[in-house]
Amino acid sequence: MWQEIDRVLISREEIAARLEDLAGTIASELAGGELLVIGVLKGAVIFLADLVRKLPFPVEIDFLAVSSYGKSSVSSGVVRITKDLDYDITGRRVLLVEDIVDTGLTLNYLLGHLKSRQPQLLKVCVLLDKPERRKVPVQVDYVGFTIPDEFVVGYGLDYAGRYRNLPDICVLKREVYQAPRA
Ligand SMILES: O=P(O)(O)OC[C@H]1O[C@H](OP(=O)(O)OP(=O)(O)O)[C@H](O)[C@@H]1O
Ligand code: HPA
Ligand SMILES: [Mg+2]
């Protein structure tokens, strides 16, 4: 069924348990004012959907879309906004939700883009942090899990558009995304 998967890295049960803690921390630190939660399409959709339902106060939700990986397992280095926000975030309290910070190029670009609109508060929550691959330092306020340098799929994360619906976070077999040596 999931033939290209090597192994489960983080199970659905571990994700659910960590989300309880993460939501508790976010709720205690960001309560007391209106909050706009911004998800980065498409990878963050499943994480955001689970996270916001654990917050004990009403939030608004918006999305923006970027693409840098396309059909590859390596960042193109060029971040492109393919869908911008619907809301004006000037003066607002914002929580940006991402599935993964890897090289940091996407988040770095997005933070510049969002800060230029002068929100009152801008916090960043990522489900996965892969620090070994970082090319630029980035602000991350809340992290679900720190993971090793392996390409992961599932729980929103894709390889060439596939596997987002896998309920666990899994490591893809290396031969799937690494071209055989000549
Ligand atoms: O830290 P980086 O190296 O920039 O990588 C992280 C970004 O790459 C992925 O996006 P992708 O371009 O694959 O879009 P997607 O969310 O639609 O899959 C992921 O969802 C992050 O947005
Ligand atoms: O490990 C990853 N998996 C899926 N998408 C990604 N985008 C950056 N790193 C990854
Ligand atoms: Mg992707």
Automatic annotation (TrEMBL):
Residues 14-159 form the Phosphoribosyltransferase domain. It is found in: Cytoplasm. It comes from the Bacteria. NCBIfam families: HGPRTase (TIGR01203). Purine salvage pathway enzyme that catalyzes the transfer of the ribosyl-5-phosphate group from 5-phospho-alpha-D-ribose 1-diphosphate (PRPP) to the N9 position of the 6-oxopurines hypoxanthine and guanine to form the corresponding ribonucleotides IMP (inosine 5'-monophosphate) and GMP (guanosine 5'-monophosphate), with the release of PPi. Belongs to the purine/pyrimidine phosphoribosyltransferase family. This is Hypoxanthine phosphoribosyltransferase. It comes from Ammonifex degensii (strain DSM 10501 / KC4). The lineage of its organism: Bacteria, Bacillati, Bacillota, Clostridia, Thermoanaerobacterales.
